[in-house]
Design a protein that fits this description.
This protein is α+β, with helices and mostly antiparallel strands. It has 3 domains: 187 residues, MutS, DNA mismatch repair protein, domain I (3-Layer(aba) Sandwich); 105 residues, DNA polymerase, Y-family, little finger domain (Dna Ligase, domain 1, 2-Layer Sandwich), CATH 3.30.1490; 212 residues, no CATH class. The protein is built from 23 helices and 17 strands. The strands form 5 sheets. A 6-stranded mixed beta sheet has the order 7-8-1-10-11-9. The chain has a 4-stranded antiparallel beta sheet with strand order 12-15-13-14, covered by helices on one side. The radius of gyration is 27 Å and the shape is globular. The two termini are 48 Å apart. The structure holds a DNA duplex (12 and 9 nucleotides).
Length: 676
DNA sequence: ACGGGTGGAACG
DNA sequence: TCGTTCCAC
């Protein structure tokens, strides 16, 4: 169970990320010592500066004394009169630059490894489950070998080290724990070798396309991969073969283990343990007496390097907060000013997030450090206007919460947090949609899962966060990534120029191919998702939007399922361009392994139109990226999520007939469009 | 010289 | 179940 070495997991960790971002932005060469400061303290130090003895939390003046040529870059700040001062009493720090860079990195990874499961673990690290990629590679390799050497046949020995084989005992310069090269005769080590090859390529892609270096760990689970990636930095990668685990854990300092850095670590060290191995030596009875059975078991597993925690897609943040600490004040005006700054930042971020992901928060929480310590108060978030949030509306909502906090003065910290996101409707035209969907009120419990009590929602209420919600978001993202892989061909319109203006030149010469790659990648990140998603959003019919989105419009793309749907027909100067939707009709999903429900002639009014449209768009985009990637699961996920949401929205929707609250089934009909 | 964010578990 | 607090990174 835990000796499931069949998974291949990567942990990729950017090397002193904040420094790299600033160095790139300012064009500072990699070998000059750089630190990122927040007010007078240092929060990130690059490797040349570390070599000079500079550490985290040092004061700027201390560091400069140690290393006079140190370049200190201050984190971005907002508030005040845009003064770029380091006066922490006027401004607040904000991490937007790093969030943006993080999105770029994720986009590169998605593009380079569309089949991997990618989990954003923090602003500068990801986990990736590349098992399916590895297994595909193994199969292809075996096949290639048996073609070349038919006599080998089944069970015959493959020459894993044959030229060009992705199975390399030395794994492309990786550091292999446990001594010696990988044993390519062992299946597990072969898997790791291929995993290392993937890691190597991914790191190369990040480096080439964005100029960032990172380190990686390659192992059979997340825990080991994370430990490994930290072992050799910067710009290196480390493999943990199963045979090396015991020795590695034996004297691994406890604090290097995730979850053991805080209270738990302290408690264990009070019991005399400083390494994982020492904890592993504690009799189980003693451990469970102290921590309880369940917790003891998980501790026991972790310190032995066992973990079966899955890599989970975490694309979208679940909450968003802006915070500021300051010297305690009892002045309402002062708090009001900070509230304004927090609202400004949050409004900006929420608006970007909203246009990119078509969602808005249901809740707003105000946290504060007042006379009774840390407290918080929550309430409903205001609804966004058509084009996002204004500072005023958020500030007002925050101030309202603040008034409910009697113990706030004197106050030394304020934080405004948006949470509990819901999806905004995408808009519209039933007619066009209906041509591509069939639906029925058949209860398909097996597809949809349990529950499904229709929630009433006049305003978007009722949260039912579940795996299905996540899977739909994930699909959307993947679809966007997939489409951006091949959306643009040379000569096709792209936002290249814009990209060139906002991205600092790479040190090396950039050829057209790179530019184009960057252009299309830009399209899928940056909080703007892909142009295609953007176009879907633009179908809300807002004039400025439809007008300002890129040329590559679905109305000109005969294969696009939204073609003919609410478009520039609304825009003055554009005659109605409604055209009969062609193609996307009948070729069914079964061709791609998806289940199809052919219920003819059903009442579309019973189905949430937004969901249909959304799903169809996703599926289309996905099929556009690669039809073969649309599997039964995808359709099932999309379908059940859609039904789920339809049920939720249904009660509020006007065009809903009774029974619509029940689960329903939506089947996607699509045809793989041909790109020309 | 622990500030600014995140996510999640625990708790009443 | 909700709102709030605590914790870990």
């Amino acid at each position: 169970m835990n000796s499931n070495h069949a998974r291949t997991i990567l942990h990729i960790d950017l090397d002193c990320f904040y420094c790299q971002v600033e160095q790139k932005r300012l064009g500072i060469s990699p070998n000059v010592p750089v630190a990122v400061q927040q007010w007078e303290g240092l929060i990130a130090i690059n490797y040349p500066a570390r070599a000079a003895g500079i550490t985290r939390h040092m004061r700027v003046h201390e560091a400069k004394a140690l290393c006079p040529e140190l370049q200190c870059v201050h984190v971005e700040t907002i508030g005040g009169d845009e003064l770029d001062t380091k006066d922490r009493t006027k401004q607040k720090a904000c991490l937007e630059r790093y969030r943006k860079a993080c999105i770029q990195i994720l986009a590169v990874l998605h593009k380079a490894a569309p089949q991997a499961i990618i989990e954003k673990a923090s602003i500068d690290e990801v986990y990736m489950d590349v098992t399916t990629m590895v297994e595909k590679e193994l199969r292809e390799r075996a096949q290639a070998d048996s073609c070349k050497n038919p006599e080998a046949g089944e069970g015959g020995a493959h020459d894993w080290e044959a030229g060009g084989s992705p199975v390399d005992a030395f794994a492309w310069g990786s550091i292999v724990l446990g001594g010696g090269p990988l044993d390519v005769g062992s299946e597990f080590e072969r898997r790791l070798s291929i995993g290392a090859n993937i890691a190597c390529r991914l790191r190369g892609a990040i480096r080439e396309q964005l100029g960032f270096t990172c380190s990686a760990g390659i192992a059979a689970n997340k825990l080991l991969a994370k430990v490994a990636s930290a072992m050799n930095k910067p710009n290196q990668q480390t493999i943990v073969p199963p045979r090396a685990v015991d020795a590695m854990m034996a004297d691994l300092p406890l604090k290097k283990l995730r979850n053991f850095g805080g209270k738990l670590g302290a408690e264990l060290s009070a019991m005399g343990c400083t390494t994982a191995g020492q904890v592993a030596a504690i009799p189980h009875g003693q451990l469970s007496a102290r921590f309880g059975e369940e917790r003891a078991a998980s501790i026991a597993r972790a310190v032995r390097g066992y973990s079966d925690e899955p890599v989970q897609v975490k694309e979208l943040a679940k909450s968003m907060l802006a915070a500021k600490s300051f010297n305690a004040t009892s002045s309402p005006a002062e708090l009001d000013r900070w509230m304004g700054i927090l609202a400004e930042e949050l409004a900006h971020r929420l608006t970007e997030d909203g246009t990119a992901h078509s969602r808005a928060p249901r809740g707003l929480t105000l946290s504060y450090r007042g006379s009774n310590g840390d407290r918080s108060k929550c309430g409903p978030a205001p609804r966004p206007a058509k084009d996002g949030y204004t500072v005023e509306v958020l500030k007002e909502a925050g101030s309202m919460l603040l008034r409910k906090c009697p113990d706030i003065y004197p106050c030394a910290r304020l934080a405004l947090q948006a949470n509990d996101f819901y999806d905004l409707p995408l808009g519209d035209d039933q007619g066009a949609i209906s041509r591509f969907f069939t639906s029925g009120a058949t209860g398909t419990r097996d597809m949809v899962g349990e529950g499904g009590a229709p929630a009433t929602l006049a305003a978007p209420k009722a949260k039912k966060t579940g795996p299905q919600q996540a899977s739909i978001a994930q699909m959307f993202k993947r679809a966007a990534a997939a489409s951006s892989c091949q959306a643009e061909e040379p000569g096709a319109p792209s936002n290249q120029a814009e990209n060139a203006a906002t991205t600092p030149a790479q040190p090396s010469a950039q050829d057209d191919a790179l530019q184009i790659a960057k252009g299309s990648e830009q399209a899928s990140q940056d909080g703007k998702t892909s142009q295609l998603v953007q176009q879907a959003l633009s179908s809300q019919g807002r004039q400025e939007d439809s007008a300002s989105y890129p040329v590559h419009d679905h109305i000109n793309d005969p294969a696009h399922p939204l073609q003919g749907v609410a478009t520039r027909a609304d825009v003055p100067g554009h005659a109605s361009m409604e055209q009969p939707p062609n193609a996307c009709t009948a070729v069914d999903a079964s061709e791609h392994g998806a289940s199809v429900d052919t219920q003819p002639d059903c009442d579309l009014a019973s189905v949430d139109i937004e969901e249909q449209k959304r799903i169809m768009h996703e599926i289309w985009m996905k099929s556009r990226g690669s039809a073969s990637r649309i599997g039964e699961d995808d359709v099932r996920n999309a379908t059940s999520a859609a039904a789920d949401r339809s049920a939720k929205r249904g009660a509020a929707g006007s065009a809903v007939k009774e029974g619509a609250g029940k689960q329903m089934r939506i089947s996607a009909m699509f045809k793989t469009p041909r790109r020309t």
